[in-house]
Structure formats: C-alpha cells, structure tokens
C-alpha cells in the first residue's frame, strides 16, 4: 500500500508531465506558425508561399491536437493507476472527439443548426 506522500509525489509527477506536454507542444506549434508567417513575407517567391501555408497549417494542427493528446495521455495514466472509471470516461471523450473528426471529414458541408 502506498503512503500519502508517495501518492502526492506521483500526482505531482503526472502534473509535471502534462504541463510539459502542453507547454512544449504550444511552443512547437507557435514556432511552426512563426516560421510560416516569416516565410509569408516573401510573396515574390511562389515555392516559399506554399511552404509558408504548410508551416502555418502544421502549427494550427498541432495546436488543435494538444488537448486531444492530453486526454489520450490521461487515459493511459488512468489505466496504469487502475482507475477504470476515469479511464472509461476519458475513452468516451476520445471517442466523441474521433466521431466529430470523422463526421467533419466525411462530409464537411453539413450544416449543423
């Protein structure tokens, strides 16, 4: 059986991992977007315009993916801790996110009112 001090240290370690994921992920995404914006200054060179658009798209996708990665990481943490109730809840959230993604890519012209 673990002591309250060990439980607290484990919780703090998990919080540091999650905070690092969000912090470093946001920095990487911001770097891609900054690179894309810097390359967009060279409007005279068509290959750089395409590269600029791709860099911006990568940055946006990374920013969108960060919360999904957090939920996925928490699912793994809950499974490792054998906390199956919260693991099931986070799996349901991942399922809802995946369903929304699939519905959006299958027919992006559907109007939801």
Describe the fold and architecture:
The protein is an all-alpha fold and 113 residues long. The chain has one domain (4-106). The chain contains 3 helices and no strands.
| Total helical segments | 3
Low-pLDDT parts are: none
Overall pLDDT, averaged? 87
What fraction of the residues are assigned to beta strands by DSSP?
under 5%
State the distance separating the first and last CA atoms. 52 Å
Characterize the overall form: flat
Kindly give the count of domains.
1
User: How much helicity do the residues have?
Assistant: over 70%
The chain-level structural class is: mainly alpha
Q: Outline the biggest β-sheet.
A: none
Q: What is the ordering of alpha helices and beta strands? A: HHH
Find the count of extended strands (DSSP E, 2+ residues).
0
**CA gyration radius, whole angstroms:** 19 Å
At a glance:
The chain is mostly helical. It has helices at 4-39, 46-80, 84-106. Helix 1 (4-39) packs antiparallel against helix 2 and helix 2 (46-80) runs antiparallel to helix 3.
List keywords for this structure.
113 residues, mainly alpha, 3 helices
Per-chain topology:
Blueprint: H1 4-39, H2 46-80, H3 84-106
Helix pairs in contact: 1-2, 2-3
